[in-house]
Amino acid sequence: MNRIDKVVVFKSLGDEQLKEILDLELHAVQTRIIESSSNTPFLMSVTRQAKDYLLSKGIDERYGARHLKRTIERLVTTKLAALLSSGQVLKGDAIEIGYESGDLSFRRAPREALVA
User: What is the pTM of this model?
Assistant: First the structure.
């Protein structure tokens, strides 16, 4: 009893795996938006620069992607909720999340550009 039987070594996640995790988490946010809307939901797209920024804020060498979900909640979901509650984002809108001047930017985009 109280002996170590095996040691399991985990390799660090690579850039491609981290990008896939980010895409899955962002897809989960979009799914929540769609499921919570009784009418036409708004759609969002995230630029590559914004994704890189989220990865830089949500990834830690020691803990990997553990903080990524919290980072998305803090930097994306909370901001989208504030924009929606203030009427700056309406149902049916398309929102492009970009990166400008050291922070995320949120702007309306042509909905066709997101769907295509």
Answer: 0.81
Give 46's strand partners.
Answer: 97
Element (H, E) at 18: helix 15-36
Cβ atoms of residues 19 and 55 within 8 Å: yes
Q: How far apart are CA 30 and CA 97, in angstroms?
A: 12
CA distance 11 to 54: 22
What is the residue type of 44? M
For the chain, domains (ranges, CATH) are 15-115 (1.10.8.60)
The rounded distance, in Å, linking the Cα atoms of 23 and 17 is 10
Residue 61 has pLDDT above 50, yes or no: yes
